[in-house]
């Protein structure tokens, strides 16, 4: 509690910190344990997982991943889908955010309210119809089908509108006196000022797209179009109770690693993104 | 956007027109148009089309659909499996949301500190939430295995018999809830932390001068100051946990005996496994109704706060 920092670190404060450290260790146990299991031979795990505490250890589960299955294809698909969704969201949200926050056009308020209402529409309420639409267009099992629905979410527009509003108005007016067009003002003057917001929204969108499960599960039916999330899940049923436990654990570690690295690099921004969304 | 530049721009008339460009101009709508098209095509139109589909009866054999009015809705309200999924979903929300609030707030209070220890601990608790549902469920399937799982192993040390968490009718849903709290707790924690950092330090200094106890300053300063975030977290998590899907599909497939089947899994199975599209769409409209109510509550809550 903030009060603690004022009266200094008391014994109670240290006790609380100790308790939280203990809890954090408990929180890490599942990840550490599963990582350790991924280095054990499958044959041993068939009977017991207690052997994780002593050798033999092996890299075979990981070399099996690299040799078999569509993991690399899925990894590539996830990267394309997450990058595409992120790029598209940033472009559309920046343009629309600028339009809403800094320009006037007939019907602006009405359109903005219409977009805000969209914040309350959950994916599940539209998923059957969305599936029909992409079926009608014969677009399932394409990258477009995996990316486009992610662009229809108004959250980014909302976030960018708030951010654009906070930039002083005089900047537009000064540029306007210099005869810059609206688009030039947006592109050269205002957009560069929003780089922190772009990073925040970008990372947020990337993680959401990378981890999405429901839509890719429905839209991508051919294994070569699976994303990593769907692909790894599709192999789960075959291994869960049987001989491939170590292999399955290695897949989890392998699939979790990229996103974890992204997290470690961009932690500051991710945390700010979440916090910023809270304050609004 | 294609406004000409040149000599004309220097004339006073042109300058005045420039000034007018700050006012309404339909061309400014072009900034909004690209998003609006995607939004209308892939969110608004499907919303209404989904409502229409929910009134149709599909014939699997000759691939036709006929108007059926509210038949799907009437059938749903008499469908014990569907009603069971509503019950399961509400129960799941009732198990997870209080945990998110209590544990999330406790962690935020404990970790609202400067320095390395606080940062590392925050990163640990938030770190799990960047994992996808597939990875989280692989990890917890392993944790819950009755014979070789870590939890049964630890219980075994104390002489307890192995527990079949995911195949027990009473334990399946709570087991999914525990996994979910482990996965997502970082999010509410961060939201609370953001709110705590907005509280002016002078309030606590004044309380300290009055020799107020920690509990006292928590109740009379902290809680009132984060009231809005508290409400936002509660409603946001209700909406989010109402959408339970991946964990249930991947950990238990809704079993045993439907004990852990949530609404979205029902929609998914009806729509994309059994191809009862009208029926699935009707179920999704009922889910939408629940969530719309929550969204309106959230809007009213935040508005009242903004006015007051």
Automatic annotation (TrEMBL), chain A:
Gene3D superfamilies: MetI-like
Protein's membrane topology: Multi-pass membrane protein
Subcellular location: Cell inner membrane; Cell membrane
Listed transmembrane segments: 15-39, 74-98, 110-131, 143-164, 185-207, 245-266
Keywords: Cell inner membrane, Cell membrane, Membrane, Sugar transport, Transmembrane, Transmembrane helix, Transport
Physiological role: Part of the ABC transporter complex UgpBAEC involved in sn-glycerol-3-phosphate (G3P) import. Probably responsible for the translocation of the substrate across the membrane.
Family: Belongs to the binding-protein-dependent transport system permease family.
Protein name: sn-glycerol-3-phosphate transport system permease protein UgpE
InterPro entries: MetI-like, MetI-like_sf
Database matches in PANTHER family: ABC TRANSPORTER PERMEASE PROTEIN MG189-RELATED-RELATED, SN-GLYCEROL-3-PHOSPHATE TRANSPORT SYSTEM PERMEASE PROTEIN UGPE
Name of the encoding gene: ugpE
Quaternary structure and partners: The complex is composed of two ATP-binding proteins (UgpC), two transmembrane proteins (UgpA and UgpE) and a solute-binding protein (UgpB).
Segments forming domain ABC transmembrane type-1: 75-266
Top-rank taxon, per record: Bacteria
SUPFAM superfamilies from the UniProt entry: MetI-like
């Amino acid at each position: 509690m903030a009060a603690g920092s004022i009266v200094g670190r008391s014994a109670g404060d240290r006790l609380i910190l100790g308790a939280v450290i203990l809890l954090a260790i408990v929180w890490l146990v599942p990840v550490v344990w599963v990582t350790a299991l991924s280095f054990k031979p499958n044959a041993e795990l068939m009977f017991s997982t207690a052997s994780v505490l002593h050798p033999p250890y092996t890299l075979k589960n990981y070399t099996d991943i690299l040799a078999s299955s569509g993991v690399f294809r899925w990894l590539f698909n996830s990267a394309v889908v997450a990058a595409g969704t992120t790029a598209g969201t940033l472009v559309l949200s920046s343009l629309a955010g600028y339009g809403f926050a800094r320009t006037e056009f007939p019907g602006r308020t009405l359109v903005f309210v219409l977009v805000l209402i969209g914040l309350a529409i959950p994916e599940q309420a539209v998923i059957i119809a969305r599936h029909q639409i992409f079926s009608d267009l014969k677009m399932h099992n394409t990258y477009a089908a995996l990316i486009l629905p992610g662009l229809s979410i108004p959250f980014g527009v909302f976030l960018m509108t708030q951010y654009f509003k906070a930039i002083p108005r005089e900047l537009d007016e000064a540029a306007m006196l210099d005869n810059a067009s609206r688009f030039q003002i947006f592109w050269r003057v205002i957009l560069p000022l929003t780089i922190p917001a772009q990073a925040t929204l970008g990372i947020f969108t990337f993680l959401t797209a990378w981890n999405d499960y429901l839509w890719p599960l429905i839209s991508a039916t051919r294994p070569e179009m699976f994303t990593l999330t769907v692909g790894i899940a599709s192999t789960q049923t075959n291994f869960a109770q049987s001989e491939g436990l170590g292999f399955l654990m290695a897949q989890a570690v392998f699939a979790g690693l990229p996103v974890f690295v992204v997290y470690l690099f961009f932690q500051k921004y991710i945390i700010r993104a979440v916090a910023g969304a809270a304050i609004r | 956007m294609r406004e000409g530049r040149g000599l004309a721009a220097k004339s006073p008339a042109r300058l005045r027109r420039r000034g007018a460009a700050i006012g309404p101009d339909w061309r400014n709508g072009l900034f909004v148009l690209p998003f609006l098209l995607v939004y209308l095509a892939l969110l608004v139109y499907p919303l209404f089309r989904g409502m229409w589909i929910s009134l149709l009866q599909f014939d699997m054999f000759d691939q036709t659909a006929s108007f059926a009015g509210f038949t799907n809705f009437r059938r749903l309200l008499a469908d014990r499996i569907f009603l069971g999924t509503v019950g399961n979903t509400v129960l799941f929300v009732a198990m997870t949301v209080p945990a998110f609030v209590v544990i999330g707030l406790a962690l935020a209070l404990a970790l609202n500190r400067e320095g390395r220890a606080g940062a590392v601990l925050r990163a640990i608790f938030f770190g799990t939430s960047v994992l996808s549902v597939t990875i989280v469920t692989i990890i917890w399937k392993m944790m819950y295995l009755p014979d070789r799982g870590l939890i049964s192993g630890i219980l075994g040390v104390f002489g307890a018999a192995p527990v079949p968490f995911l195949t027990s009718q009473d334990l399946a849903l709570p087991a999914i809830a525990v996994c979910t709290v482990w996965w997502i707790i970082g999010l509410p924690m961060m939201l609370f932390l953001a709110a705590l950092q907005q509280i002016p330090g002078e309030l606590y200094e004044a309380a300290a001068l009055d020799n107020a106890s920690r509990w006292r300053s928590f109740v009379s300063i902290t809680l009132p100051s984060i009231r809005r975030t508290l409400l936002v977290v509660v409603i946001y998590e209700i909406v989010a946990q109402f959408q339970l899907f991946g964990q249930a599909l991947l950990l238990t497939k809704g079993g045993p005996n439907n004990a852990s089947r949530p609404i979205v899994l029902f929609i998914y199975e009806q729509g994309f496994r059994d191809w009862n599209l009208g029926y699935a769409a009707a179920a999704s409209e009922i889910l939408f109704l629940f969530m719309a109510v929550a969204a309106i509550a959230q809007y009213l809550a935040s508005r009242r706060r903004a006015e007051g």
